[in-house]
Amino acid sequence: MRSFLIGLGRGAAGALLFAVPMLMTMELWELGDYTERSRLLVMLFLNIPLLFFLAHQIGFERTFTWRQAARDATIAFGLGILISAVMLAMMGILKPETSFTSIIGRIAIQSVPASIGALLGRSQLGGGARQNEPDEGAVPDHLSPNFARELFLMGVGALFLNLNVAPTEEVILISYKMTPWHALATILVSIAIMHAFVYAVSFRGTHQIPEGEPRWHALFRFTLPGYVITMLISLYVLWIFGRLDDTAASQILMSAIVLSFPGAIGAASARLIL
Q1: Which of 214, 217, 211, 202 shows the shortest CA–CA distance to 272?
Q2: Do 153 and 230 meet the contact criterion of CB atoms below 8 Å apart?
Q3: Integer Cα distance of 27 and 8 in angstroms
Q4: Roughly what angle, to the nearest 10 degrees, separates helices 147-165 and 2-23?
Q5: Among 20, 28, 204, 206, whose CB has the most other CB atoms within 10 angstroms?
Q6: Residue 174 in contact with residue 249, Cβ under 8 Å?
Q7: Is the distance from CB of 56 to CB of 65 less than 8 angstroms?
Q8: pTM of this prediction?
Q9: pLDDT band at 147 (very low <50, low <70, confident <90, very high)
């Protein structure tokens, strides 16, 4: 029980730490007002399985069953909603005269990154222990890295960073200013950064390529599929926020490429820190 309460405190701290930039972003308040409610519901419903699987990787305490993971996911979502509501009210974004639909929309759109942050807080505020050094707050031993887990974590990282950037008008502005050559360069740089973060620059958590394995193997097995996932996440976030409505296919692709740049950084970082 004590370890769970400590994990709960870390979750609340993580929700604040990771969500504050979005809680203080005017574009997200406005998106909470006019984003289609059906799309908000899609985002909220899809956040549930994401939290469920993320909790199985890094819950508030060691999780050995899916029931425990479901409990942690539910608590994380609740923390995200509560902290979002309290912070928005404290900053005067939610007022008595604010319409009920605006209140619900603003809290809903902020609760997704806050709930993810609540679970990430357990990993990042866990007393500095490394995942390969078991202790009271360690990730369970049976969760060894594998292909599906790596891709899932990359998707979480891309989603989290995309939620920070996608609401801004600059994403669309940059996409209009870019030429096809700029887009190609952005794709290549994004992929290079994803690969270098994990395998080349010796950050804490850097992955080692097994001896005897070709160096290109990790590129084609993890980095390129991870970039494809990042692109899909970018399209999903842009669609949720209505950035793709009445837009030509070429411009949709450009916007996704622009948003995939920070998404790629988030995806690579998630492989290092989670």
Answers
A1: 202
A2: no
A3: 30
A4: 40
A5: 28
A6: no
A7: no
A8: 0.82
A9: confident
229: alpha, beta or left, given left = phi > 0 and alpha = psi -120 to 50? Answer: alpha
Residue with more model confidence, 8 or 131: 8
Which residue type occupies 42?
Answer: V
- Please check whether residue 145 is in contact with residue 153, taking contact to mean a CB–CB distance below 8 angstroms: no
**Distance from C-alpha of 264 to C-alpha of 157, rounded to nearest angstrom:** 8
Best CA proximity match to 163, nearest among 93, 118, 115, 112: 112
The two tokens of residue 68 are 């425990």
Extract the tokens encoding 152. 């899932």
Q: What spatial distance separates the first Cα and last Cα of the chain, rounded to whole Å?
A: 24
Q: Is the pLDDT of residue 207 over 80?
A: no
Average pLDDT over the chain, rounded to an integer: 83
- Per the CB < 8 A criterion, the answer to whether 55 and 69 are in contact is yes
Distance CA 187, CA 249 (A): 17
Single out the residue of 79, 88, 82 nearest to residue 11, CA to CA.
79
Give the dihedral sign, CA 231/225/195/122: positive
Angle at 143 between CA 137 and CA 146, to 5 degrees: 140
Question: At which residue do the structure tokens 């939610």 appear?
Answer: 94
d(CA 131, CA 212): 26
Q: Which residue has the tokens 């574009």?
A: 27
Rounded to whole angstroms, the Cα distance separating 14 from 130 reads 18
Compute the average pLDDT of residues 104-133: 74
Residue 128 has pLDDT above 50, yes or no: no
Which has more pLDDT, 8 or 73? 73
Neighbours of 97 (CB within 10 A): 4
Please list, in sequence order, all residues whose beta carbon lies within 8 angstroms of the beta carbon of residue 227, skipping any fewer than 6 positions away.
187, 190, 191, 194, 260, 264, 267
